[in-house]
Design goal:
It is built from four helices and 13 strands. It is α+β, with helices and mostly antiparallel strands. It is elongated, with a radius of gyration of 19 Å.
Length: 227
Amino acid sequence: MRCPVCRREHRYAATTYPCPCGAPLSPPLQRGVAPEPITHRTWTEDWVVVRCDACGRQDQWPQPELGCSCGTVLRIPVRPVSAPPAPLPLHIPVPPTAAPPRRAFRPVTIRTARDAVTAAALYLKWLGFRDVLQSEARPASGIDLRGPGLVAQVDPTTRPASLRAVECLWLNALSSSATGVYFSLAGYTKDARARGDDLSIPLFVMDLTGTPQPVNDAADELVATGP
C-alpha cells in the first residue's frame, strides 16, 4: 500500500489476535481502498468490528494502523461486517449444583479508560464480590480495583495483555491473600494466556458494550460459582 502523503509503498499484514474461542483472528483488510492519515483520534475510530470465522462471534478489535517513515500514521481500511451483530454468547457453564441464575448483567458502554474500570467493577459486584472500590488514580502496582479478598486489573489499551502483567497481578493477589482477576479489552498474548491458566488467574475480555467474557477455565469457574 502507498502512503498518500509521501507516496512511499509499504507491505502490511494485519496483526493476529486470539479470539476467546481460541482461534487466531485478523481484521480483514479492504483491498483497493487507500489508507487514510490519522490526524486526530477518537475512541470509536480506534476499534473495528470483526467476525471470527471459526465461531461466528463478533467483537471489537483494534483498528489496523501503519507508521510511515515520513512520520504519518495511516489507518488501514477494514472490510465491514455485512450481517447485523449477533448476540454475545454467554459462555457460562452451569454445573448441576450451581446456584439459581443471577439477574442479567447490565453493562456500561465503554468510551474511556475510566469507563472500562467502572464496567469491570460493576461486573465483579454482579459476580458477588462486596465493597469493590476503584482507585482514584491508577497506582504503580496497576491494581485498579480492590475489595475484601479481591484485587483486579483492567487493561483498556489496544495491545493484548502481556505475560508480565498477568504475573504482576498474581503476585499482588498472593501478597494480599486475595483472588486476582484480569480484564483486557484487546485480549492476551499467547504466553500471558498460558500463564493465566497455570496460575488459575481468571482472565476476561471486554468489548465496548462493557460486557466481560471469560476466556479460561478459572474465569468460567468464577462466573459459575461466584467468589
